[in-house]
Amino acid sequence: MLLTITNEPRDYAWGSTTLLAGLEGRSPSAGPEAEVWFGDHPGDPADVADGGTLDAVTGGSLPYLLKLLAAADPLSIQVHPTREQARAGFAREAGMDAADPARNYRDDNHKPELIVALSDRFEALSGLRPLTQTRRLLASFPDTPGVVELRDRLSKGDEPEALRSTIGWLLSGTADAAVADVIDGLRTADAEGFAETLTAIRGIAQRNPRDPGVVVALLMNFLVLHPGEAIFLRAGLLHAYVSGLGVEIMAASDNVLRGGLTPKHIDVDELLAIVDTSPGEVPVQRPGGEVTAYDVPVADFALRRIELSGQQRLQVAGPAMVLATAGDVAVTGAAGRATRIRVGTAVFATADETELVLRGTGEVFLAEPGRN
Question: Which of 14, 104, 167, 256 lies in disulfide reach of 73, CB 3.0 to 4.6 Å?
Answer without folding.
Answer: 14
